[in-house]
Amino acid sequence: MKIVVASDLHGSAYYARKVAERFAAEEAQLLILLGDIYNHGPRNPLPTDYAPMQVAEILNALSDRLIAIKGNCDSEVDQMISEFALTPLAQVFADGYKITCTHGHEWNIDRLPPNAGDMLLYGHFHVNWIRRVGSLVVANPGSAALPKDGTPHGYLTIDAGTLALKDLETGETLETVSIGA
């Protein structure tokens, strides 16, 4: 099963469309969003094409293939425009791997959740990277809409035992890691 993972859209219809386009181009079966979907947050600038209702329309069209994590900027009202659940934590089992997905404001590389499995994925910090902590692969796709520290607008793919960090604008692979190695 091929999976696309993105985070921190912060209400950008432009980057929600980009994520949907990459999801289609990657021919993935599952899209995981790691939170902060609709609201830009008080410390962030408005992202390109800020239009939360358009983001809802784009994502609702993918609701049958979407897992959405509730981020620290997401609220109960956001659930009202979503045809998918916003959950604080999800565990996905794919191709023999256990993948724990969260937003990152509670569980992250500095505070690992118990029984994370083979991989921990989270957003929140708007900087993308992949690391190992023992046998656990930990990754952050960065922010699709508002990346920080000079990192690109990013997303992740999981396919056939490989985790790849990619540039959302170009689809270029930036880094890959074997999950089970």
Q: What characteristic shape results from the CA principal axes?
A: globular
Beta-strand percentage range: 25-35%
Specify the biggest β-sheet. Answer: 7 strands, mixed
Ends: how far apart?
19 Å
Keywords:
five-stranded mixed sheet, seven-stranded mixed sheet, 3 helices, 12 strands, 181 residues, globular, alpha/beta, 15% helix
How would you sum up this structure, described in words?
The protein has helices spanning about 15-25, 50-60, 75-80, and strands spanning about 5, 30-35, 65-70, 85, 90-95, 95-100, 120, 130-135, 135-140, 155-160, 160-165, 175-180. It is an alpha/beta fold. Helix 1 (about 15-25) runs parallel beside helix 2 (about 50-60). The mean pLDDT is about 95.
Write the layout of secondary structure elements.
Blueprint: E1 3-6, H1 13-25, E2 30-33, H2 52-60, E3 66-69, H3 76-80, E4 86-87, E5 89-94, E6 97-102, E7 119-121, E8 128-133, E9 136-141, E10 154-159, E11 162-167, E12 173-178
Parallel strand pairs: 1-2, 2-3, 3-4, 6-7, 7-9
Antiparallel strand pairs: 1-10, 5-6, 8-9, 10-11, 11-12
Helix pairs in contact: 1-2
Short characterization:
This protein is an alpha/beta fold and 181 residues long.
